[in-house]
């Protein structure tokens, strides 16, 4: 099982558990996480979900070896929910979502913070949105949520540069709420999650709904724009060069692509 689930004091902790793959999301983990969020949403005994990772990574994003198969093999078997289904579950999740970023966070391991109600980050963790280094477009409504959360220029740097951002910088930008020493991360995140979980679930849901409802249409529109751009770019010259370079263990070279790429 690539996802660990633990219930305590009305907090359901979801731990991404593919440490050998830096908790990268393959189709199975996308499905398991989406299912877990749907189950937690419907469970009247769960007030808050706490999401973290096992090992030295929070999540390395989409499994690039599997992405290469998806890009090159039309018969590759997709999961029940997949990436888009996980984002659907995050958008719809009606209860507080607390993220504890324990290590490396790439791609969805960073953009998922746009859906966090509270985000905590280890001092040793770092984040990257690698879209331009993969020759693709933003994801998970980050093109809308990040400018709202971080301001335009911080969001532009995160989404355009494909560079690492450390914990102090992520905190200064407003991407995470609190930074903790590694050993303090989970206890601190859990303490805050349990404080929320002691409140009435109906009230928690009402507060989150009134905060999220005004931006639902913008999130949906951003996802449509991103998905269209991603579909156009995935499998294109830049993306195939990036994925081939990853599979071959080398740095991609985007300088000899066709004009406009």
UniProtKB/TrEMBL annotation:
Entry keyword annotation includes Cell cycle: no
Pfam name, any one: ECH_1
Residue stretches in coiled coil: none
SUPFAM superfamilies (UniProt xref): ClpP/crotonase
Signal peptide feature range: none
Keyword field contains Isomerase: yes
Principal subcellular localisation of the protein: other
Gene3D superfamilies in the record: 2-enoyl-CoA Hydratase, Chain A, domain 1
InterPro entries assigned: ClpP/crotonase-like_dom_sf, ECH/Chromodomain_protein, Enoyl-CoA_hydra/iso
Protein name stated in the entry: Enoyl-CoA hydratase/isomerase family protein
